[in-house]
Amino acid sequence: MEGQFLDYLFNPQSIALVGASGKEGKLGYFYLKNLLEYKGKVYPVNPNEEEVLGVKCYKSVSAIGAPVDLVVVVVASKLVLDVVRECAATGVKVVLVTTAGFSEAGPDGKALEEEMLKIARNAKMRIVGPNCFGIRNCNAQLNATFSFEASKEPGTISFLTQSGGGGEVIYIQGKDEGLKFSKFMVCGNKSDLDDYEVIDYFGDDPETKIICLFLESIKEGRKFFESTKKVTAKKPVVVCKVGRTEGAARAASSHTAAIAGNFTAYETAFKQAGLITTRNAQEMLDVIKAVDWQPLPQGPKLGIITASGGLGVELTDLSEEAGLSVIELEQHIQDRIKPLIPDFACAKNPVDMTPIWGQFSDVMKKTIEAFYDSANVDIIVPIIVLRATRMIDVLESVRDAILSCQANSKVKKPTYICWVSLKDSLKNKEIFEKAKIPCFEWTGRVARTASLVYGYSQYLQKLRGE
Amino acid sequence: MRGEERARRIFSTAREEKRSYVLEYEVKEILKGYDIDVTKEVVCKTADEAAQVAKNIGFPIVLKIVSTEVVHKSDSGGVKLGIKSEEELKTEFDKMLALYNGKFSADALKGISVQEMVSGEEVIIGVLKDSQFGHMMMVGMGGVFVEVFKDVAYRLAPITEAEAMEMLKELKGFRLLDGYRGRKPANVKSLCETLSRVSTALEELPEIKEMDLNPVFVNDKRAVIADGRIFI
Known about the structure:
Number of domains of chain A: 3
Oligomer: heterodimer
Strand content of chain A: 15-25%
CATH architecture of the largest domain in chain A: 3-Layer(aba) Sandwich
Radius of gyration of chain A: 26 Å
Shape of chain A: elongated
CATH superfamily of the largest domain in chain A: Succinyl-CoA synthetase domains
Order of helices and strands of chain B: HEHEHEEHEEEHEHHHEEE
Helix content of chain B: 25-40%
Number of helices of chain B: 8
CATH topology of the largest domain in chain A: Rossmann fold
Helix content of chain A: 25-40%
Number of domains of chain B: 2
């Protein structure tokens, strides 16, 4: 089993921390404090300490005298090789090297990294990193990073990131917005790890329902392509590949090379493998919310209800530009909506309520129900702005209408709120988000997210021959 | 001879001659080995020989310079289209020969290619070998569509005929192939076959780094490659 070492990484029976420290402020202190939360055995290792944070400390990995699955290394780069050698000799399965100063730092570091790999390969031991911030398994209270942002709640989103800092920001921000993570992995220098191995592992992992990737480079692109292609048939894979515009221009001798930019091959591979390609972290989080919380859209047709005609038109434009459509509702559906709104208001789609705040609850509820009965609506977007964002009873009634329609209908229509509010009512978004109805600020994010998610849905439909 | 064998022989000749590119007539030789339709051509040394060949192929005729020193033929006056008679052919042949004679060694000047002239919608088929993902294929509507509008679609190889069809449908200019404004619908199926056969060739020929098949003419009867370059 090729991915088995990742199981040792995410579900180790025992972990040793080399460089453990009881001194607050030291990296070895933060890692230890986090690791001590883990349900498995944790052995601090430091030749100069008898005890750290109230736990017996060992002089070396071999002094532990019991099998160790995962060793986390937090010592200076000049000491790493000795530790790795010892790990290899004692039958450790995986070594996570957090230390920087390897291939990313120049030729000397590269030589050091190669030497480390040689030792590991001879012992059939695997290296994660070096230059790696760490990993988490939120479903097992494993936090092998120096950040205290552990996840107490179990989750189903697994995340592979090359950048430690960038990945951590996405993870914390996502968590703050209510996303629940399963596995989090920083791959650092990827010296002994190919991206596809992680994809395969997450793909087979029953605790992973959504995979997200934040990558600067991809190793073994062809295998990455084959693996993701297999996995996207089962679960969504959302990718953000940064470093798309770097100037490293290919020597363009042919016409074809001159037309295709640097990112074209990536873009082509992503699309062909059914990945959801996002341009930045914010888009990635929006898409994750949409696929995690809502059903996939079965078609491209938006049903929009708004109190602001202008924003309704803006959303229509952006949606159509993004490949979606906003088409007129059937007459019998319009006939159900018309009596609810003033004579001069529009029931065609977008349904423009006009500012009749007192009736918002009733109009929105009944319009959402009507959207459910319309063959011209696949995706429902209520636009909720300003004054309405302060009207708790309206928000709750819209939420309840959405939930009851989704619960009672055979076809589940994804619903995204387009939200624009002042600071004072921003947190009212949670009325929806706690019920797993995503709120996206401004029309652009709604259109973009809906279009990306619909793209994936279309890919699956094609795969199933629909 | 199978395409793979032909290609290997041509690639090794190119390497011996210290070329990283494969000449048009060689490209066509390779493609024929994969049952890909290319314009008929014979490389001739003299105007009389050319006249004989033209009689067999039938007018109108195209002349193209064949030299290991010339990669961009039309830029240097090495392409003459639409020759309608034997007389015109002989004049143009000698003119072109004079243009290049003495410019480079007799070894480098292989002759002038006498080719059948085809009409139809212009399409470009391209290939690029990416260091990460391997061969990537491109198809686009030719001429200004590709130059100005970059109206192209990409897929990683290998592709099936059905995938080739999807690529074509992604093109804004697809309507031109599909009977736009009373044009005769082009033989799109034949173009899809060509694309999938190019894909087969790529599977056997990993040494191909870049390839332009440009133009490819698609008319109501067939898709035919009128010019091509390969970089190895």
